[in-house]
Specification:
Layout lengths: L12 H15 L4 E5 L12 E2 L9 E2 L3 E4 L13 E3 L4 E4 L11 E4 L4 E2 L5 E3 L9 E2 L10 E3 L7 H9 L4 E5 L3 E7 L3 E2 L10 E2 L2 H11 L3 E8 L3 H14 L2 E5 L10 H8 L1 E5 L3 E2 L5 E5 L2 E6 L3 H19 L9 E6 L3 E2 L5 E11 L2 E6 L8 H5 L2 E5 L5 E2 L4 E6 L3 H5 L1 E6 L4 H12 L4 E6 L2 H9 L5 E4 L11 H8 L6 E15 L10 H4 L4 E4 L4 H12 L13 E2 L2 H10 L4 E5 H6 L3 E15 L6 H11 L1 H8 L4 E2 L6 E4 L1
Parallel strand pairs: 13-16, 13-17, 14-15, 17-21, 19-24, 22-25, 29-30, 33-34, 33-35
Antiparallel strand pairs: 1-12, 2-11, 3-10, 4-6, 4-7, 5-9, 8-9, 18-20, 20-21, 22-28, 23-27, 24-25, 24-26, 26-28, 31-36, 32-35, 32-36, 32-37, 32-38
Length: about 625
């Protein structure tokens, strides 16, 4: 029986990092090297750097004009101009040497040429006028840079001006990167069931390079103990740091920790962090080796918490704190007392409040890293946070970008991706942030002041009218004046596999297939429930009624995979996944908004893009849309 790795004890994040860095500092001396100054950008100086030469090297002209003896010009004035003869001046350009007896420069624009080759001036020149004295900028032996200084572009220029062409800096760290897993393949290999496209190592390459170190991706290693051991051993001989991705958890073929125990010492295996618990911190001889979890979010979080400070130390970089902001949480977050948890959030400014909306929390939800504006950190020994709690968010985007972002929370549609792409292209530094929680949940977020707008498609069964009745119902009696930005009419129906093998053509057919539903409160779910009642079908008769997908594309993906036979969604999602579609009818997809938010510059920009012909043409290519009132404002009293 293969042996599993078990974490009987996990260590707090700060304790794990401090204990590991203390070992690294004892065993790994910081290395230095002498390199050309022109290659030193971003490197850190080992010792103070002093100028070799003066700058300028000589007294030089600061302007184009003529060098003169100032004493000879003292009588010049407007009423009695003075004419300088050829022997009284020397023509100079900016940067030319100015030698005795000349001690001043008159600018070319202050000179009038005479017919005999002389120059007329109307005011005297002061001694050292428009002359840069030797050493004005830099004096030989003057301190240029202190030790432990990260070299910037302007520093390179000053070093060269001071005669410094080589400089001693802390050595750039070479980092070996391995991906492990028999199921892992390169992106250009054939796709099949049971394989996973390897991407984490490419993320690590970028993160390592971003830190000024040199990444060396050494490919994918299959789950073979001897293969992993031999490659890690060889990498430790050649490189300064080794990263081994995946194989650090409790699986029977997770060999990394056993390999590192054989080759060296494991100081930490299991940290109280979520996601990312299985991280390994080890040493092989005098080389740090870090085993990072395989799930993308876990890998990223552990890199930031452990590899980043390690590389900063080895290159003597100062830790750079991320920009943080206080925000109000839009919904409750439950967390374990056992972990410090990093929750990805979307962030936007609504009225005078910064709102943080949690994204998918799964360790494998890689797109949440792309969508995230920041991380909300729930400390260990904290059970969670309530909706409305004030939290600290570490930002991944600038606060200026966030302040110019339209916050949209509600129903999902593919056209939101088009709007998100077009908005910053047409209006620089204006953005759209959309979170897909369903129509009803979007309206509730709008009511709590957590969004600028809520995309909705809610049918009122009594009146047959979309959206307006529900807005009136939820916002009646308050002082908030509401409006509706008209969006599109879109076709709803059943998304089915190519060829429609189950021959689904009506609501009655849904009861005999495997169905995937939308989440409670989604407009599609409301429509589906209405159609069930209209056709006398109970939800108990639907196989899969309780199985939910968060977006139309998620429904289409499940149908395409063969996991289900059918799901209700929009035509564009079916087309995007090359599936068949059985139309049910048009619905109205609009944007609920408070009237006062209509005056915001980024909301005005959003409406302008929504009304544009370019937008309509792009959405038409998706299929299943009409634009009869797109961008019109309807008052909801």
């Amino acid at each position: 029986m293969k042996k599993r790795n078990l974490y009987l004890n996990v260590i707090p994040v700060e304790e794990a990092l401090d204990s590991y860095l203390s070992v690294v500092k004892k065993r790994v001396p910081l290395k230095t090297e002498i390199i050309p100054v022109v290659q030193a950008l971003g490197r850190v100086t080992v010792s103070a750097v002093y100028a070799k030469y003066n700058s300028p090297l000589y007294n030089s002209a600061a302007m184009d004009g003529v060098a003169v003896v100032s004493q000879k010009t003292k009588d010049a004035c407007e009423l009695k101009p003075l004419v300088l003869q050829k022997e009284d001046f020397l023509v100079v350009d900016t940067g030319d040497p100015v030698h005795e007896p000349f001690d001043a420069v008159i600018m070319a624009e202050d000179l009038i040429e005479t017919d005999d080759g002389g120059l007329q001036i109307t005011e005297p020149a002061m001694s050292w006028q428009h002359i840069r004295p030797v050493g004005e900028d830099i004096v030989a032996h003057e301190l240029i840079l202190t030790s432990n200084h990260k070299i910037r572009p302007m520093d390179v220029g000053v070093l060269l001006s001071g005669g410094i062409t080589e400089i001693e800096v802390y050595k750039q760290v070479n980092v070996a990167i391995f991906a492990t897993g028999t199921e892992i393949i390169e992106p250009d290999q054939n796709i099949a069931d049971g394989v996973i496209i390897e991407s984490n190592s490419r993320m690590f390459e970028g993160l390592v390079a971003e830190q000024g170190a040199k990444p060396f991706r050494l490919g994918i290693l299959q789950d073979d103990y001897a293969l992993i051991r031999d490659n890690v051993r060889e990498a430790c001989e050649k490189f300064d740091v080794v990263i081994v991705n995946a194989g650090s958890s409790a699986g029977t073929e997770d060999f990394t920790v056993h390999v590192l125990r054989e080759l060296g010492e494991v100081f930490v295996h299991g940290v109280a962090i979520k996601p990312g618990k299985p991280v390994i911190l080890a040493m092989v001889g005098d080389k740090p080796v870090v085993g990072l979890p395989g799930y993308p979010v876990s890998a990223y979080v552990c890199y930031q918490n452990f590899v980043r400070p390690l590389l900063n130390h080895l290159q003597n970089f100062a830790e750079e704190n991320r920009e943080t902001v206080r925000a109000f949480l839009s919904k409750r977050l439950v967390s374990s007392l056992k972990h410090k948890e990093y929750v990805r959030v979307k962030v936007g400014k609504v009225d005078d409040k910064i709102i943080a909306t949690p994204l998918a929390r799964g360790a494998g939800a890689a797109m949440s890293l792309v969508r995230a504006d920041g991380f909300c950190i729930i400390e260990q020994n904290q059970e969670g946070l309530d909706a409305g709690d004030s939290v600290t968010v570490e930002l991944c985007r600038s606060l200026k970008e966030i302040e110019n972002t339209v916050v949209s929370i509600g129903s999902h549609d593919l056209m939101l991706d088009i709007l998100a792409d077009m908005l910053p292209n047409k209006y620089k530094n204006m953005y759209l942030s959309s979170s897909h929680v369903g129509s009803l949940a979007g309206l509730m977020a709008l009511k709590r002041g957590e969004a600028h707008m809520a995309p909705i498609h809610l049918l009122d069964e009594e009146s047959g009218i979309y959206n307006i009745p529900m807005i009136k119902k939820l916002f009646t009696g308050g002082c908030r004046q509401m409006a509706l930005i008209k969006g599109v009419k879109r076709v709803q129906g059943f998304i089915v596999p190519k060829g429609n093998p189950e021959n689904i053509s009506a609501m009655s057919d849904v009861a005999r297939c495997r169905y995937i539903n939308r989440q409670s409160g989604a407009g599609t779910r409301v429509l589906f429930d209405y159609l069930l009642r209209k056709n006398g079908i109970s939800c108990e008769q639907v196989n899969g009624y309780d199985k939910e997908a968060a977006t139309h594309m998620a429904v289409a993906a499940l149908v395409q995979s063969g996991a289900v036979d059918c799901g209700m969604g929009i035509e564009s999602a079916a087309r995007a996944m090359n599936l068949d579609f059985v139309p049910v009818g048009f619905e109205e997809y609009d944007f609920a908004i408070e009237r006062n938010n209509l005056d915001l510059p980024h909301v005005k920009a959003f409406i302008d893009v929504l009304k544009s012909e370019d937008f309509k043409q792009k959405v038409m290519r998706l299929g299943g849309y009409e634009f009869s009132a797109c961008g019109e404002i309807v008052s909801v009293s």
